[in-house]
Write a structure and sequence with these properties.
The complex is a heterodimer of chains A (113) and B (112). Chain A is mostly beta strands. Chain A contains no helices and eleven strands. In chain A, the strands form two sheets. In chain A, strands 2, 4, 5, 9, 10 and 11 form a six-stranded mixed sheet that branches. A five-stranded antiparallel sheet of chain A has the order 1-3-8-7-6, with no helix packed on it. By secondary structure, chain B is mainly beta. In chain B, strands 2, 4, 5, 6, 9, 10 and 11 form a seven-stranded mixed sheet that branches. Chain B has a four-stranded antiparallel sheet with strand order 1-3-8-7, with no helix packed on it. In chain B, strand 9 and strand 10 form a beta hairpin. The N and C termini of chain B lie far apart (36 Å). The chains are: A mainly beta (113), B mainly beta (112). The interface between A and B is medium-sized, with 24 and 25 residues.
Chain lengths: 113, 112
C-alpha cells in the first residue's frame, strides 16, 4: 500500500523567503501527483498536478518537481507572502488502483510579515 | 460556477442515530469520492464512484455506505454513527478525462 510522507509537519518563514516543501512516497508506480492547499475551515484547492512522465510544473510563484524513481516531489514557493500561509498537501494516484488517491499529512506553513 | 457542495457543513449527533451527508457537483463529473481527515492521519479515502451505480471501497469503508443514483449526487450514509467517526469529511469529484480533483468545503461531524 502506498504511503505518503510530508516533512516538516510545520514551517515558519519570514516574508520574502523562498522555501521548499517535501513529499515522499513509497511506491514509485504512480500515475500522477497533485499538490493542494488547504485553508482553515475550507476545502482543498488544487495547486499543481504532475503526470508521471513529467519532471516539473510551474504556476506563478509555485514550482513542483517530481522524481518518480526516488519517490520524491518538492513544491518550491518563491518570494513567500503572508497570504501563502496554509497547509499544503500532496496526493499520489497509483498506476494500479488508479481511482484511489493517497494523501500526505501536510505541511503547515506560516509566513511572518 | 463550477463547484462541489456538501451539506450540512457542521453536524453534532449522538451514537446510533442514522445520518446522511449530501454531496453534489455541477461539473458533470463521472468520478466522485469521499474522504475523512483526522489529525496526524491525513485524508483517507472512504468510498469512490466511477459513475452512476458504480461504487467501490477505499481504505476506510467500515461503518459507511454510499449510493450513486444520479451522476451529480453522491451521499455518504452513516447507519449507526459511533464516536470514532468524529472527523472532517470531504467530497471530491473529477471528470473522466481530467486529472484534477475538485473538493467540497468539508463537513465537520461530531458523534457523542
Amino acid at each position: 500500500k502506498q504511503e505518503v510522507t510530508q516533512i516538516p509537519a510545520a514551517l515558519s518563514v519570514p516574508e520574502g523567503e523562498n522555501l521548499v516543501l517535501n513529499c515522499s512516497f513509497t511506491d514509485s508506480a504512480i500515475y500522477n501527483l497533485q499538490w493542494f492547499r488547504q485553508d482553515p475551515g475550507k476545502g482543498l484547492t488544487s495547486l499543481l498536478l504532475i503526470q508521471s512522465s513529467q519532471r516539473e510544473q510551474t504556476s506563478g510563484r509555485l514550482n513542483a518537481s517530481l522524481d518518480k524513481s526516488s519517490g520524491r516531489s518538492t513544491l518550491y514557493i518563491a518570494a513567500s507572502q503572508p497570504g501563502d500561509s496554509a497547509t499544503y498537501l500532496c496526493a499520489v494516484r497509483p498506476e494500479v488502483s488508479g481511482n484511489q488517491f493517497y494523501f500526505g499529512t501536510g505541511t503547515s506553513l506560516t509566513v511572518i510579515p | 460556477e463550477a463547484q462541489v457542495t456538501q451539506n450540512p457543513r457542521y453536524l453534532i449527533t449522538v451514537t446510533g442515530k442514522k445520518l446522511t451527508v449530501t454531496c453534489s457537483q455541477n461539473m458533470n463529473h463521472e468520478y466522485m469520492s469521499w474522504y475523512r481527515q483526522d489529525p496526524g492521519l491525513g485524508l483517507r479515502q472512504i468510498y469512490y464512484s466511477m459513475n452512476v451505480e458504480v461504487t467501490d471501497k477505499g481504505d476506510v469503508p467500515e461503518g459507511y455506505k454510499v449510493s450513486r443514483k444520479e451522476k451529480r449526487n453522491f451521499p455518504l450514509i452513516l447507519e449507526s454513527p459511533s464516536p470514532n467517526q468524529t472527523s472532517l469529511y470531504f467530497c471530491a469529484s473529477r471528470g473522466y478525462r481530467s486529472h484534477e480533483q475538485y473538493f467540497g468545503p468539508g463537513t465537520r461531524l461530531t458523534v457523542t
